[in-house]
Amino acid sequence: LRIPLMWKDTEYFKNKGELHRCAVFCLLQLGGEIFDTDMVIVDRTLTDICFDNTIAFNEASPGFELRVELYSCCSEDDYSAGSTPRKLASKLSSSLGRSAGKKLRAAMEPGACSPVSNGGAAPLLLPVPSVPGPKYHLLAHTTLSLSHVQDSFRTHDLTILGNEECSYWLPLYGSMCCRLAAQPHCMTQQMMGGWLKFKQCGGDPQNWTKVYAILKATSLFCYQRQEDVEANVEPALTIGINKETRIRASEKDPLSKGQNICISNRYGGEEVTHTLNTESREDTHHWMEAFWQHFYDMIIESSNDLSSTVSDILARRMQELELRSQLGTSPTWMSVFEENSPKCTGYPVRPCTSRLSGHSPHFPHRLPSRSPVSPHRCPQLGLLSSDASLTSDSDSHCSTSPCCHRHGWPEPSSNFSLLSSSPSRLRPRTLSLDAKLSTLRGRGYGGGGTFQCSCQPPSSSLLTPLPVSSRSPLSQLSTQTTLSCSSSTSSNSSSNSEGSHSPESSEGSPFSRPSPVRRSLRNLRARLDPRNWLQSQV
Amino acid sequence: MSFVPGQPVTAVVQRIEIQKLRQGENLILGFSIGGGIDQDPGQNPFSEDKSDKGIYVTRITPEGPAEVAGLRMGDKIMQVNGWDMTMVTHDQARKKLTNKREDVVRLLITRRSLEEAVKQSKGSHPRQ
Q1: Which tens digit of pLDDT belongs to each residue from A41-57?
Q2: Among the four residues A144, A198, A433, A526, which has the most C-beta atoms within 10 Å?
Q3: At CB < 8 A and 24+ separation, what contacts does A342-351 make?
Q4: What local confidence, expressed as pLDDT, does residue A91 receive?
């Protein structure tokens, strides 16, 4: 955490004026957790107040508010411990009543006989300790939230209280630099586990291998035995689960009891599908729900702009409606959509199960080399997974992607009204999480423009080599909707350094000019990104 | 033209007085600035010292008030109407230049060629 100061040049250079010294520290509070930093003594020889502490909060919800407060206390030389100004002492002794004063003095002076009270005429030095220590005043504060989570250090504005007359005053520049990182639980913890049967090519259902599968971070890890999970044994099979993965639940297989779940990923040019079989319909249900929540969590994690997230989510939910009609029951996560309410814009529907945690073992040490002055540590909400770190980078580059969503994509509310009629239609046998989207696309959004995201994410990546980017078949249609653009953006950001980046960005897709509002939004983002070298016309 | 913390900054400067031009509702000067203490100095193409966070002129509108007054691309702005520009954020600099109540800005700018010129003139007249 770094808080720059702004001393007057006379103070700073010529050592004019008394040495004004303050002791400061920061309090960071999130929900029920509160931490403090070490204390720093500040005087005019310092240009910045630096707190080197790293602070992790483990129980943050997506809507968190992290309050940072800077407390300061003047530490002038004559306030050294053990003495009080004479005036104060005499006032105290005279303002207390005679008997109370006597008792107080007796109490304060260990073992001494009660000193004579002469009515305040002579100053009496009272020991300080009854008033515990110096008093700190709130000098500045600010509140950070999910939107401030970024991949690198950012400058945040401070609200400053007090003025030059206060003893605890420090000439703050008015901002605070720190890095706020967040990592959702879905990246570090197991979200779902259970037994599944893994279909081997050409095998008949009796011979499908039973595996214990764990859904965690960006993969589905399949182990031969449940104990293997704890034992750190290599999983027998790892299936990538990311924003580009397509998961389909097929109709009840007459040959087996449960339903088949097909997970498809695109590795390079090929599509690889794994088929897993569940024991029962309920299991399928649970798994699909877990997958859905996982997608959602990954999207939330990777995009700071919730409005764009919502468009993504809505698209997926449309697909889910189909799923639901086939499954016959209405999953809990669908219930909100039955009301056709667009109130989901902005926040997750379910009481947030995606939680932020601070348990990741690595700290992606990707400090921008151009800011040598910023400290290496700052309060973090847990350590950022590489996924999100890449994504938020590209988020700032592809700043228009959230904007472009709205370009070809109608208002959420109208989306809904469109869709609520759909479940009644007969659906093809194989349910697809993306089939709905393609029909939707063909229907009304032909005019939808798309924005060519020509940005490329920074190449360093800490992801395990999970080939991630894929072209969903949706993009093959001539009019790409913004969803595929956004997924490609996200996939851009989560693609690993092996170079398999989504080709969408370089396709000759129809390019539509962003409206002036979008442009100004883009400009705003460009302005706020300290990596750009800003130029202003005057 | 970087500074040593604690030491005064010295530079050879030129005074430039620009009359703002009214364009509709706006008063324009006809140039663009870059830099600032909140910007990344490494990206400044005009600065000699890549840690210089000063305000530089990055673009001049041809025939605009700034060009007419003698401002050139690459100039470093030291003061605007008496306000220091060597230690300001980008936005602060912009604000000082776009004050609606002022229709003229007096800049103190420095540029490499000025320093060179002074050096040369000093050199050709050795001290006695």
Answers
A1: 888 888 888 988 888 88
A2: A433
A3: A342/A411, A342/A412, A342/A413, A342/A416, A344/A310, A344/A313, A344/A314, A344/A412, A345/A307, A345/A310, A345/A412, A346/A306, A346/A307, A346/A310, A347/A62, A347/A63, A347/A306, A348/A62, A348/A296, A348/A300, A350/A293
A4: 55
